[in-house]
Amino acid sequence: MAKPTTLAEFESVFPRLEGDLIAWVKEYNLPQEQLDWFKKSLETNTLGGKCNRGMSVPDSVSLLLGKALSEEEYFQAATLGWLIELLQAFFLVSDDMMDSSITRRGKPCWYRQEGVGLVAINDSFMLESSIYVLLKKHFRSHPAYIDMVELFHDITMQTELGQLCDLLTAPEDRVNLNSFSLEKYSFIVIYKTAYYSFYLPVALALHLLNIATPENLKSAREILIPMGEYFQIQDDYLDNFGLPEHIGKVGTDIQDNKCSWLVNQALRLATPAQRKVLEDHYGRKDAAHEAEVKKLYDELKLEKLYQDYEEKTVGEIRQLISQIDESAGLKKSIFEAFLQKIYKRSK
User: Fold this and answer.
1) Exactly one of 14, 53, 59, 90 is catalytic; which is it?
2) Is 166 a catalytic residue?
3) Nearest-angstrom CA–CA distance, 302 and 298
4) Catalytic annotation on 152?
5) Is-catalytic flag, 50?
6) Which of 12, 36, 109, 147 could form an SS bridge with 96, CB 3.0 to 4.6 Å?
7) 104 belongs to the catalytic site
8) Residue 321 and residue 336 in contact, taking contact as beta carbons nearer than 8 Å
9) pTM of the predicted model as reported, rounded to 2 decimal places
10) Which of 17, 281, 52 is nearest to 133 (CA)?
11) 281-340: per-residue pLDDT in tens?
């Protein structure tokens, strides 16, 4: 019977992988001061998150095999999970700089820590390079090695395309609601979130078990991309309508000029007078302006609109899951597990 991983089990694999990376840079006779820097960057930026993306790999492998994993099976699956966490770390270090963010996981962002500054750009590159060092060390003899290398390259590029669209559509310091659209929003969330957060863990699990047939990958993509889009729309909904004590933060999308699902729906539904409210108040760093936008969201009944969207979308995803052909090794249970984690979540 499949056995879900725990965060403690997953984190227990990291020291071995960190040791591999430290041994790798030592081969180049990196001076001790710079070695210590790399180690600190690695630990600060890769550890401390929820690791949901990374843990999805061993969870998916266990579901595909229908059993608890052996020690070696778990190590391999968790290693691929940690490569996703390294990719996430690379994105977050650079994203925080692009967004001029202040904190990350309750601490100052890496680039804002003492003595770091723009060195963080190079640190982000090293986090990305670490993915391929570990892939080579642990999977070079695996039949799907090149497929996994190419998968990481493809997903990285896709995520960067989503980020480019996001940065140019909704710069934090310049509000232009004419540049927003639901089509752009969909592109941003599919490429910036859905591919690396939902599709990548399952695709890696399929490659690890040598069952990444074109049909299995296509089926996974057709379910997981809409699921990832639903997850981000849910996130946007919670940013405004979720309770801070549940979601663990105060929503900032309105003040940060985010190209969110809610503002795009508001723009679609607004009368000329309501559009003027958005033009006057959206993206302003002020609680009074934010309150006017929130009031408009209530007038437009966006909470009910989201709830209707959620039921319709989840119904469609469940229909897709029910149609999966399991004869080539893909299992419906993987997708059911993903959906169970996010449906009706409050944080």
Assistant:
1) 90
2) yes
3) 6
4) no
5) yes
6) 109
7) yes
8) yes
9) 0.93
10) 17
11) 998 888 999 999 999 999 999 999 999 999 999 999 999 999 999 999 999 999 999 999
